[in-house]
Amino acid sequence: MNQYVEKRKHKENKPVVAICYDFDRTLSPEDMQAQGYIQSCEYDINEFWTESNNLATNNDMDQNLAYMYMMVEKAEGKVVVNRERLAEYGAGVTLFPGVKEWFERIKKYGIEKGVIVEHYIISSGLKEMIEGTEIAKQGVFEKIYASSFYFNERGAAKWPAQVVNYTNKTQFLFRIQKGVLDINDQGVNDSFEADEIRVPFRNMIYIGDSDTDIPCMKLVTMNGGHSIAVYDPETKDKSKAYKMMREKRIKFYAPADYSEGKELDLLVKDIIDRTAANEKLESLYYRQKKEQITNDEEQGEEARNKVDLINSLRISGNFAYTHTVIAQLNKYDNWTNDEREDLFEIAVHNRQVYCILHDTDVKNFYQNLLSKSKSLSENAKIVRDAMEE
Which of 98, 138, 171, 377 pairs with 285 at a CA distance of 20 to 30 A? Predict the structure, then answer.
C-alpha cells in the first residue's frame, strides 16, 4: 500500500468548509521576518528587502529563495538560525484584532450549522515562524503550507526544504480539495468522482491581501468558491481590494478585523450558512443521480430508449414531431402492457396524436398495439373507435 494512503482525508458525512489563509498582512499586519529577525541581523528592513530582491533579479532567482538565503547569510555570527530560534521570533509576531479567538469561534459556528470548518495556511512566509505563533500552538490549523528550511544534524538551517511562491500556492488548494495533504503524496494527481471530492472548490474560502494571492483567489472564485481580500483596518486602504474586485479575482473584501460581530466575521458566517443549505441540495442531486444510473443499468439501453420515446410522444406539440417520434417507436415490437397503456393514454389526451390517428404511420403503429393487447382498456377502445370512424 502507498505509504501516504492512510494519511489522506476522505469524504465526510457532513460538508467541509476549508478556509485558507495567507499569513503576512492577512493575519499579521507586517511581514513576519520584519518583526524582530531582520533587526537582529542589524539590518534596516527596507534595505534587507531591497538587497534580497536585487539578489533574485540579478541571478534569475526565486524571490523566496533569495530571502531565505539572505536570512541565513546575514545571520552568520549574529543569530543562530535554527528551528527553536525561528519559533521564538514567530511567538513575537503581531496579529490583527480578533485573530486569536477567530479559529475556534468559526469552527464552533460551523458545528452549529452542521458544517465541518477546517483552517489552512498557504503562505510564502516561514513555516517555522508560523508554527511558533500563539495561534499555531493552539493547534487550530489542519495544515500549514509555507516555505521552510532543511536543518542539519546540529539543527542549523542549511537549505530550503520547501518554497511556496504565488504561482505554486494553487497546488495546495488541490491537495485540500482531495484530502491528499502530504506534499510528497502523488495521489493529488488521481481522478476523483465529483461526489467523492472531500472539499469542492465551492466550499472553499480563500482570505488574502495582495497580488501574491491572486492565482489562488482566481482559482477559488472561478470554481464557485469565495475569495476575500482583507485590508488593514487602521489605514483603511482598499486600493488593492478594489483592483482585485475590478479584475474579478475576488467576490468580497473586508477589514482584517477578525473580532466577533465585525464585517469579516459576519461575512464568513453567511458563507457557512449558504454552504449548509447548498450542500443539502448537492447531496440530494448526487443521491438521485446514482439512483438514475442504477436504474439505467438495470433497465438496459432498449428499455431506456422506449421510456424516452414514450415521454417524447407525451409532450409532442406539433404534427411533424409526432410523426418523427412514431417512426422511432415503430422500431420496437415488444411492448409491455404498461407501456401499451401509456401509449393509448397519450393518444387519447394529446391532441397532436389524436388528430392524426388516421395517418398511415400512426394508424399502423396503434393497430399493431391493439392486436397485441389481450384485453382493451377504456383508452385502447377510444383509440380503436377513433381509427374506425
Answer: 171
Contacts 24+ apart (CB under 8 A), 365-374: 365/326, 365/329, 365/330, 368/333, 369/335, 369/340, 369/343, 369/344, 372/335, 372/340, 373/337, 373/340
Q: What is the distance in angstroms between the CA of the first residue and the CA of the last residue of the chain? A: 75
Residue 376 to residue 357: CA distance in whole angstroms: 17
Phi and psi dihedrals of 275, rounded to 5?
Answer: -65, -45
335 grid coordinates:
411492448
pTM listed for this prediction: 0.77
202 and 278 Cβ atoms separated by less than 8 Å: yes
Residues 101 and 14 sit within 8 Å (Cβ to Cβ): no
What confidence tens digit (pLDDT) does each residue in 336-375 have? 898 999 999 999 999 999 999 999 999 999 999 999 888 8
The dihedral built from the CA positions of residue 208, 212, 216 and 221, taken in this order, carries a sign that is positive
Could you tell me where the DSSP H helices lie in 151-238?
Answer: 170-178, 214-222
Asked if residue 212 lies in contact with residue 240, where contact means CB atoms within 8 angstroms, the answer is no
DSSP per-residue codes, 302-335: HHHHHHHHHHHHHT--SHHHHHHHHHHHTT----
